[in-house]
Specification:
mainly beta; 4-stranded antiparallel β-sheet
């Protein structure tokens, strides 16, 4: 059974489950009758003020939801409508989104089909990204320990900032781009004779990651976690690369080279 069919079967088993999942539900009926409405992803997490929502290539990208029947099959002919629940966004009948008005908090959009309504998804309205650069002028240092302590063997956030020259009428504040994806790539790690592993993780978690989105200060970042070989005392570095694009082209300053220096904190006799 596919994941989609299994999910719809679970929904059919208990209508109360609908409230906690990412689909809206209707009663099971004819195979041609919509039963579930999936709206879980946006083409891009932010739309530039005064522009249209686009995908990673820069192409205009309408919102898209999937309509399922009670058996978990896609109803290709069913066409949901899309509604902005908050000010700042305009959604055409085609699902194309524009941002004619500035909004500090991310407006929410939903997909609707008859009595079905999806969970709201937030869409940032942001300034046009114009450049990306390292947030700190000096490399981050990990003073790693052995035996391994995940807390001490994890770096501080390694960050970049995306700046904008776009001005917003009657809006003050730092000219940065929020809600914009940045991709982090591991370019160099010490050889296995020095480190058992080097892991790139999220800023606020332990899960390996390659993408982070900028926060309200225009910052995006990751952390580096190292597991040294027993008794290792040799200093070395980890090198990352951060890449950000706009309309399919690299931003000025991209890619950004980021260095994390490794240094043994204590030496066991």
């Amino acid at each position: 059974m596919s994941a989609r069919r299994r999910r719809v079967t679970q929904l059919a088993a208990g209508g109360a489950l609908c409230a906690g999942l990412v689909v809206a539900c209707s009663s099971i009926g004819d195979p041609d009758v919509p039963f579930a409405l999936e709206f879980t992803r946006l083409p891009w997490p932010a739309v530039v003020y005064g522009d249209t929502l686009r995908d990673s290539t820069g192409a205009v990208a309408p919102l898209s939801a999937t309509v399922l029947n009670g058996a978990g099959d896609t109803l290709a002919t069913a066409a949901p409508a899309y509604i902005a629940l908050d000010s700042g966004l305009t959604v055409a009948s085609s699902g194309v989104v524009t941002a004619p008005r500035w909004q500090e908090t991310a407006p929410r959009v939903v997909a609707v089909l008859g009595r079905l309504q999806s969970r709201p998804l937030p869409l940032n309205i942001t300034r046009r990204p114009d450049s990306v650069f390292a947030a700190a002028s000096t490399p981050v240092t990990v003073e790693y320990d052995f035996p391994v302590s995940l807390a001490s063997n994890t770096s501080a956030a390694v960050q970049v900032r995306i700046r904008s020259r776009q001005t917003i009428p009657n809006v003050t504040g730092d000219s940065v781009t929020r809600g914009w994806p940045v991709r982090f790539t591991l370019l160099y790690a010490p050889p296995r004779t020095v480190m058992d592993s080097v892991l790139v993780i999220g800023e606020s978690g332990t899960t390996p990651t390659t993408v982070d989105t900028t926060d309200g200060s225009g910052l995006a970042g990751v952390r580096v976690r190292v597991v040294p070989q027993a008794g290792q005392t040799v200093g070395d570095s980890v090198v990352l690369q951060a890449t950000a694009t706009h309309r399919g082209a690299p931003l000025p300053g991209s890619p950004v080279r980021l260095v994390v220096r490794l240094r043994r904190a204590t030496v066991t006799p």
